[in-house]
Design goal:
7-stranded antiparallel β-sheet; 12 strands; globular
Length: 240
Amino acid sequence: MHAYSPYSWITQDSALMEPVEIAGIKGRTYAFDPEPVTFCSVNMDVRAYASIAVDAYDVDSDEAGTRAEHCELAKKVAEVVLKKFVPLAGGKPAPSAVQEPAADALKNADICEVVKFTHTNYAGVNAGREGAQKGEGPLGPTCTHEVPYAKAVGMFTNGTGGLEAMPPKTGAEVRNGQFGTLKARFEQTAESCALSVQLSNGQVVQVDFAGKKKEAMPRTCVSAQLILSVSMLGLITGDS
């Protein structure tokens, strides 16, 4: 069992991919390798920065047992975890669970490590480490990752005035909301979506995702959320 990447689309060829609902939480049962390999995974959308995954397999052989048995075992383990630790399933977060970055998480931070090339991969922007272009905007440092499919720009503010000190994008549809426990703002246009999240000290982290190919256009806000979820998880764990 492990905390996985944010719950998102899977583009890899899969021998098994089925929807599942456990304790009222939606997810999927999947396996990449075809039989006779019997490995099976359950991945649950717990509406957090990271999703929960349970892998079931025989430690002695990839081909031991049956996939059906391993899938059922993974589902049973996932149900126990969900009911104990996921509020949506009736549980409570573990007492030691940290749900937002430390107030000084951005102190001496490198923006291209905060919104990293590995983070943008989750939304189809695979520019690589060498493709990360560092810059400086009016409110703070920027890091641009761009491929023919789309462009993602990460930014954090040097100031601590919060979202109120950041003027929204001209012509955008603005929605205020939450991102985990943090105050957030979405700014959506026909081709882009900027998601800004306010940290406890008033600094703001933003991902602005702009589609360049038509297949990227319908999911600009989902893509911005995916990237920022991984970035927030890195700030919380110190892995950014």
